[in-house]
Amino acid sequence: MYTEKVMDHFMNPRNVGEIENADGVGEVGNVKCGDIMRIYIKVNGDIIEDVKFKTFGCGSAIAASSVATELIMGKTVEEALKLTNKQVVDELGGLPPVKIHCSVLAEQALKAAIYDYATKNDLHYEALKDFD
Ligand code: FES
Ligand code: FES
């Protein structure tokens, strides 16, 4: 049912924790399952130089957050905003259909963290217009 990569990121999640004095924090919850995901980012210039997450949720949500942090580490904010849940799922080698929403949570938490950063720094990104 789960790929080896999902199991690996669930058993050994990368970048777990929080960042003190993070430049942006995003938290999203899924009303259906009650799972909660929080992502912290540290931005230097335009580069996401650190990202950490805490997920109170299912294994797929943990694996999705873990992979998402790896995918955006070291990227520019603009690049990170292009991350989609599909990319997260592909990177994991697939997720069962009922678990797709777990990867959506990762995309949303990341966008929420960047939105928080953008708001604090009076920056505007086209990809975030839905948040306004
Ligand atoms: Fe039970 Fe997500 S609903 S683990
Ligand atoms: Fe809800 Fe995975 S079951 S995030």
From TrEMBL:
Identify the residues that the record assigns to the NIF system FeS cluster assembly NifU N-terminal domain, covering every copy.
1-121
Q: Which InterPro entries match?
A: NIF_FeS_clus_asmbl_NifU-like, NIF_FeS_clus_asmbl_NifU_N
The organism's superkingdom is given as: Bacteria
Q: Mind telling me which NCBIfam families this protein's record contains?
A: NifU_clost (TIGR03419)
| Protein name, entry field | Fe-S cluster assembly scaffold protein NifU
Give the species.
Fusibacter ferrireducens
Q: Which gene encodes it?
A: nifU
